[in-house]
């Protein structure tokens, strides 16, 4: 894992919980949900590229695979800092790596806090004895502070050693702002990568406190989403798939991704409009 991968990892996680511009209830719900989904798609690309080591570990005995993987995690998470002067690393060389950051410049944001990564293996019989079937990463906690935000979360990432099997993740995050706005996200996802593209399915619940709702001009408190077969390639907007959004008094909107920077939104009472995606503004 290199510095760019891990910087992207942290920024993608933060992006899940970053509120978008306001608007009417429908537009606010679509904006919050689609931005969270776009960030999850970025995370899927980053995670698959950055944590693809298990493909190389498939035929190694578990003990050798564990030692090799811990060293890669130690080097990779430390690389996020950009400078060894701001990093403290603790590891038992077998099951976990904990990295503490003190005013580390990632190239885009200054970060304080810590990431603790634990690993476990699902195993299978092999000529070497017992080999990894999948690596299970647990990030507990991720506790990161930037100039404007404090992000706390726990997530589990399962990475199978067979290249044709999907990666998956489950997590819960809270992002607190200096103005007392707070956004939480609980989600689970699975995806497959082909080159620099991913196909992802995703379920999530996004909750905003009163200050966060005021900031973006919406009275929507909780949004429940379900995305199916959404495809995105690096540096592009989602090109296919659907996102269903439930909020308010049982309203359900459907977002259909098109090949471009916009999506079509339909819903009750004749709702039908085109929505500009966040990725199209970048």
SSE arrangement:
Elements: H1 3-16, H2 25-50, H3 53-57, H4 62-79, E1 87-91, E2 96-105, E3 110-126, E4 129-145, E5 149-160, E6 167-177, E7 182-194, E8 197-208, H5 210-216, E9 222-233, E10 240-247, E11 251-257, E12 262-266, E13 272-276
Antiparallel strand pairs: 1-2, 2-3, 3-4, 4-5, 5-6, 6-7, 7-8, 8-9, 9-10, 10-11, 11-12, 12-13
Task: Count helical runs.
Answer: 5
> Mean pLDDT, rounded to whole units?
83
Range of helix content: 10-25%
- Major β-sheet annotation: 13 strands, antiparallel
| Envelope shape | globular
Per DSSP E runs of 2 or more residues, the count of β-strands stands at 13
> Structural class of the secondary elements?
alpha+beta
Using only C-alpha atoms, the radius of gyration works out to 19 Å
How large a portion of the residues is in β-strands, by DSSP E? over 45%
Would you list the SSEs in sequence order as H and E? Answer: HHHHEEEEEEEEHEEEEE
The low-confidence runs, each spanning 5 or more residues with pLDDT under 50, are 1-8, 16-22
Description:
The protein is of the alpha+beta class and 282 residues long. It has one domain. Helix content is 25%, strand content 48%. A hairpin with a 5-residue loop joins strand 12 and strand 13. Helix 1 packs antiparallel against helix 2. It is globular and about 60 Å long.
Summarize the entry for a quick read.
25% of the residues lie in helices and 48% in strands. It is an alpha+beta fold. Strand 10 and strand 11 form a beta hairpin.
